[in-house]
Structures are given as structure tokens and as C-alpha cells.
Design brief:
About 40% of the residues lie in helices and about 20% in strands. The protein contains seven helices and eight strands. The strands form two sheets. The chain has a six-stranded parallel sheet, with helices on both faces. It has a two-stranded antiparallel ribbon with strand order 1-2. The longest helix has 28 residues.
């Protein structure tokens, strides 16, 4: 986890999940509320990112999302926001996640789930793949396994999760959609930043 300079993680010994948010605990087991406000921002920002990703998919695919076979790689804040919205549009959605509890959560939402090991063995069936993991997950082997004309949308921050050189060599169409909130919903994204700053100031008695 990355912290701003004033939020060094040296004072914290644990992180817990409550609902859809992460909470930091200090050495005495106390929740750090000002840090909670800081962590709310990426959670809220997942919404305009998900909507922007769906917009790109609808513009770039030659088929409807309805009845499309869709894979969401990763089931963190963004994956949990994106996958159910795709399903609500009629897409057949699977989630690839490393942790069992994430896959179980996906199944509770009516989504299919798979692990990340052996990803290349079953990528051939998807029309579109959304990656949310900011680590190498779609390399040469995985990209080569995709069906012809499949679309990959990488939503991960740098360094991303797709081998772009391999994608170019294989002729796989990849869109690395960085900074979507500010592009598709700048007013909403700005409001999230403002609210986060105000909450930190309020909780810090500033």
C-alpha cells in the first residue's frame, strides 16, 4: 500500500477490511480515522473508472455487452465495482482473483470465478478482458491464448498488467485506460478529492 509522505506506514501494524473499505490500526489497535478518509478516495474513485471502462468497451466492441463473455482480472475496489455493473448490462462475467475469499465474494454476486494460475488455459473464450491488477498478469502466453479480435482494457495504474510489446507483436488490441475519472467524470472526481481533503481536515481537527 502506498501512503502520502505524512502518512508513513511505520506506525501501523495491521490492516483490516470492513465492508468494502480498508482500515489501518496502530500499535495499540486503534483505527486511524484520518487515514480512513484517505483510503475512501480510491474506493469512491472506482465508480467513475468503472463507468469509463464500460463506455470504452461499448465504443470499441463490435458486439453488445449483453451476452458478451467478459473477464475481470482482480477483485479489489475496482473489480468489485466494475463486475456487477457489467453483469447488470447482461454480460456473462467471470472474475479471476488470487484469494479464495475474493472468488467466493464474486460467486455470491452471481459471477463466475477462476484463480490466476493457469490463466492461459481458459482465456480463449472471452470477448473482452478488463485488467485491474497493477502487476504483470497478461504476458506472452496469456495474450497468445486470447480469441481472435478479443479486446483487452487495462485499467491498472503504472506499470500496468499487460505486456504491451507482446500484445503489439501478437496483434492483440489493448487499450491502457489511465486516469479515467478525470477524463470521463471530472466534476465528480474533483468532488471526491474535495470531500476526502475536508474529511481529513475535520477528523484531524484542522
Amino acid at each position: 500500500m502506498q501512503f502520502p509522505p505524512q502518512c508513513s506506514n511505520r506506525a501501523f501494524v495491521d490492516e483490516i477490511d470492513i465492508g468494502n473499505q480498508s482500515f489501518l490500526k496502530d500499535k495499540k489497535g486503534r483505527l486511524q480515522t484520518s487515514r480512513l478518509s484517505f483510503l475512501r478516495y480510491p474506493t469512491a474513485n472506482a465508480l467513475p473508472t468503472a463507468e469509463g471502462a464500460i463506455q470504452i468497451a461499448m465504443e470499441e466492441l463490435p458486439i453488445t455487452l449483453h451476452d458478451a463473455r467478459v473477464l475481470v482480472v482482480g477483485f479489489g475496489r475496482l473489480g468489485r465495482t466494475l463486475a456487477p455493473r457489467l453483469r447488470s448490462l447482461g454480460a456473462r462475467v467471470w472474475v479471476s482473483a488470487r484469494r479464495y475469499e475474493q472468488r467466493a465474494a464474486a460467486e455470491c454476486m452471481g459471477l463466475g470465478s477462476e484463480g490466476v494460475d493457469g490463466l492461459s488455459d481458459w482465456l480463449c473464450s472471452y470477448d473482452i478482458v478488463f485488467n485491474t491488477v497493477p502487476a504483470p498478469v497478461l504476458g506472452v502466453e496469456e495474450l497468445a491464448a486470447l480469441k481472435e479480435r478479443a479486446l483487452v482494457i487495462d485499467l491498472a495504474s503504472r506499470p500496468g498488467g499487460v505486456d504491451m510489446d507482446a500484445a503489439a507483436a501478437l496483434g492483440v488490441r489493448v487499450i491502457w485506460a489511465l486516469s479515467l475519472p478525470g477524463k470521463v467524470a471530472p466534476v465528480t472526481s474533483g468532488r471526491y478529492i474535495k470531500d476526502t481533503v475536508y474529511h481529513i481536515m475535520e477528523e484531524s481537527n484542522l
